[in-house]
Design brief:
mainly alpha, 196 residues, 9 helices, 5% strand
């Protein structure tokens, strides 16, 4: 049996706009040019910061995405999209180089405190917890995501991958089988590698 373990970094980049109303809170900043004249920058709304942050994520400009999401939080810290975007941005950094993992978890937990049904936050918490070797915490987060959406095969793929890390092949194979039932394309390969 091969010991190659592939972990799916399934970080959803788009934020659910379950309340996609235009936020009318605006900001303005005053700067001075060389002639000391006041110049007021164009007002930017919460939703515009979110859209810009999401675009930076898609373009892999993570530092800029973090800035945009932080600006949105300054405008309205009670909405989930900015906290989720910030958490995902930090989760990408966590996944790529093990930095900001705990900060990502904090931001994603803020999402859950605002909307306990935000399944993508649980999923991304599991990725960060896996990166810091908190496998029990990662499995708990995945179980919460599964409770929210038991038909998402990627939750089972990642859960199986964590069980492989823990050398619990039988549990891993159960989860890969469940992912296959749920329609996962990669489950067949994992079953062939680890379960046959």
């Amino acid at each position: 049996m091969k010991k190659l373990i592939s972990f799916i970094p399934f970080i959803l980049l788009s934020c659910d706009n379950y309340q996609s109303q235009q936020n009318t809170i605006k900001t303005s900043s005053i700067t001075k040019n060389s002639k000391q004249q006041d110049i007021i920058s164009e007002s930017i709304t919460y939703d515009e910061y979110i859209k810009a942050g999401e675009q930076h994520l898609k373009d892999n400009n993570i530092d800029y995405a973090i800035k945009e999401f932080n600006q949105a939080i300054k405008l309205d810290n009670k909405r989930v999209e900015a906290h989720y975007g910030l958490g995902v941005s930090k989760a990408i950094i966590c996944f790529n180089n093990n930095n900001l993992c705990n900060e990502a978890i904090i931001d994603l937990n803020t999402v859950i405190s605002i909307n306990p049904n935000y399944k993508k936050a649980y999923f991304n918490i599991s990725i960060c917890k896996t990166k810091i070797s908190d496998f029990k915490g990662a499995l708990d987060a995945l179980d919460k995501a599964i409770n929210q959406d038991p038909n998402d095969p990627d939750y089972y793929i990642n859960k199986g991958s964590i069980y492989l890390i823990l050398n619990e092949t039988a549990k891993a194979c159960e989860n890969f089988q469940e992912a296959l039932i749920k329609g996962s394309n990669s489950a067949k390969e994992k079953i062939k590698l680890y379960c046959e």
